[in-house]
Amino acid sequence: MNALITLENFALQPVDDKILALNEVSREYGLVLTAEDAKELSEIRERSLKDNERLEIGLGAMDGIIRRFSRSSFINQENYAYVIAEVTDLFYYIKTETDDKVSDNELLDELYLRFEQRCRGSVDLLLSREGEILIRKINAGENYEKWFGASDSVDTSRDTDINARRDDSGVVMPYLTDEDRNLVKELEQSWREENEGEDEDND
Amino acid sequence: MTELQLTNQSAFQPENLRRSDYTNTLAAEAARIGLYTEDDILAIQTGLMNTLAVVIGYATKNESTSVRLDKANEYLGCVLYNCDTYLLTLNDPFAAAEQLKSIPMEELYNRGFAINREHYQKAKRLFANVRYTRLHDGSKTYNRAIDILLPHYLGSYDPRFNAQDQLYMSIPSMGVKGPFHMDETVAMLEKLLAVQKGRQSDLQI
Question: How many domains, in total, are found in chain A?
Fold first, then answer.
């Protein structure tokens, strides 16, 4: 006899309406999701839950993601839906990889902080570097510094303009002068001319 | 009992109702004989989903809205087992089907949980007695049951989250053979106590 009551009955509940309702929150920051965006986010959420072997009833984590990340200074109307989708996927991945050792709110706060401060709005960095650091940190617990402290440290010494222009001896190099820029242009032009000549020979 | 109830009761095929999966098979059988409509089934599924969300909230202390699928399956099994426990006490599939339709699922879960919690507390009291009056010349399987299997089972059991868990043990010399659900564990412990009866202990429980 087929079971009437199984997890499969619960698994795929669309949450488009709940996502759209959060426009009331994000509108304050000039960010709005369309019905199409909401549908796509709902599908991405379902896929991510399936990929990470999780069950969630209701909107859950995406509510917290939208409420936090809509405040970000690195998010605009063009990349809003994309960032929400990627962070959602990363969130469920980390929850599964860390065996639910961390609460939703703690993880969301940490992801937002890292996105703003360490990644400066780079989703790629958040997904690749920060995601893995977080997983190691959560799984290692109090042993984190001992096991991973050195290798996971991020060089933030060049995150200001002055530091970015400081050379190995500590001297702050000036910005490119007009003379330097002209020299660079000449070099680029001559390189192009040399390579065009080679391409013609190959043809 | 009205003629309709008699007719409906006889329409329930006993072989289609499984005690180990009572809620599920009862709903399926009620749908088959036309006692339930599609809306009734949908309402039961929605009620179960909401109850599962409540249980997940308890289990995660409301710190997580999602759980791993294997955990979700375990919690769903617990919700259904607690519902089964209560519905089976009615001893009447027609009455059980009526209550499954009319009473909120969370209420059914709570009623079943209360029954299983009582079994659990009784089992713990009985086990304390069993330990203090244990046989000193018991078999290897007997000692293993008293020292390892029963403490582990009773220590990890929680009628909120894993009411359906079973104790896997056997003591051939005493005619004890599992697996046992919690109500069956109570009966088994009472049997052990009856065998150990007459042993003296200086500790009063």
Answer: 1
Contacts of B108 in chain A (CB under 8 A): none
Lowest mean pLDDT among A114-123, B56-65, B190-199: B190-199
Residue A203 domain flag = no
At which residue do the structure tokens 């607690």 appear?
B82
Confirm if A56 and A99 have CB atoms less than 8 A apart. no
Per-residue pLDDT averaged across B31-58, rounded? 92
Q: What is the DSSP letter of A81?
A: H
Query: Sorting pLDDT into bands at 50, 70 and 90, what band is B199?
Result: low
Sequence-ordered list of residues with C-beta below 8 angstroms from that of B202, at least 6 positions apart, any chain: none
In the predicted model, is pLDDT for residue A2 greater than 50?
no
The answer to whether the CB atoms of A9 and B69 lie below 8 A apart is: no
Strand partners for B67: A55
Kindly list the domain boundaries of chain B, sorted by start residue. 3-113, 116-196
Does the model's pTM come out above 0.90? no
* Pick among B64, B71, B84, B108 to test the A interface (most A CBs inside 10 A): B64
Mean pLDDT across B173-192? 93
Q: A14: distance to nearest CA of chain B, Å?
A: 14
The answer to whether residue A160 is domain-embedded is: no
Measure in Å the smallest separation between the Cα of B68 and chain A Cα atoms: 4
